[in-house]
Amino acid sequence: MLGKLNHVAIAVPDLKVATDQYKDMLGAKVTAPQKLVEHGVTVVFIELPNTKVELLEPIDASSPIASFLDKNPKGGMHHICYEVDDIDAAKSQLIQTGARVLGDGEPKIGAHGKPVLFLHPGDFSGTLIELEQV
Ligand code: CO
Questions:
Q1: Residue 94: its pLDDT value, please?
Q2: How far apart are the C-alpha atoms of 44 and 7, rounded to whole Å?
Q3: Cα(8)–Cα(103) distance, integer angstroms
Q4: Pick the catalytic residue: 54, 57, 83, 130?
Q5: Domains, the chain
C-alpha cells in the first residue's frame, strides 16, 4: 500500500521564526507560506533532495495544531506522510483491518492539491499518519 515518504510534518508556534531558522541556520530551501483553511493551518515546505519537511502553524485557536502546541509549546513532530496510489482503496483496506480514519473519513484536498487522509495515532505506535494519493 505504501509508496514513498512524502513528508514529515513539524508543528511550530511561529512559522516566520521557524522558516528563518531553516533558511538562515540550516541553509534550506523553503517554499512560500500557503494557508489551508480546511485544515486550519498555514504551511511551508522545506525541500530536501529525497523528501520534504512540512512546517505547520495553526490559523487560530480552533485549529487541531493549536491543541498540539498547548501540549508541546516549543513545537514538535506532528505527523508523517506516506504516498499511496489509490486513497480510496487504501482507506477500505485500512478500515477492514480495524484502523481508524480521522474526521468524517472522507479524503480532503491537502497542501499539494491531492487527496489526503489522516489515520488515528493510537493505531500506529502513537504516530499520526497522513496518506496522500499521488
Ligand atoms: Co502533511
A1: 96
A2: 11
A3: 20
A4: 130
A5: 2-133 (3.10.180.10)
How far does the centroid of ligand 1 lie from the alpha carbon of residue 126, in Å? 16
Distance 111 CA to ligand 1 centre (A): 7
Output DSSP code: residue 76.
Answer: E
Q: Rounded to the nearest whole angstrom, what is the distance from the C-alpha of residue 47 to the centroid of ligand 1?
A: 13
Distance 2 CA to ligand 1 centre (A): 15
Q: Which residue in the block uniquely carries the three cell numbers 472522507? A: 106
Is the sign of the CA dihedral 28, 10, 1, 103 positive or negative? negative
Mean pLDDT by 10 residues, the chain (134 residues): 97 98 98 93 97 97 93 97 97 96 93 94 97 96
Q: Could you confirm whether 130 is annotated as catalytic?
A: yes
Residue 41 grid coordinates: 493551518
**What's the rounded Cα separation, in Å, for the pair 117 and 28?**
28
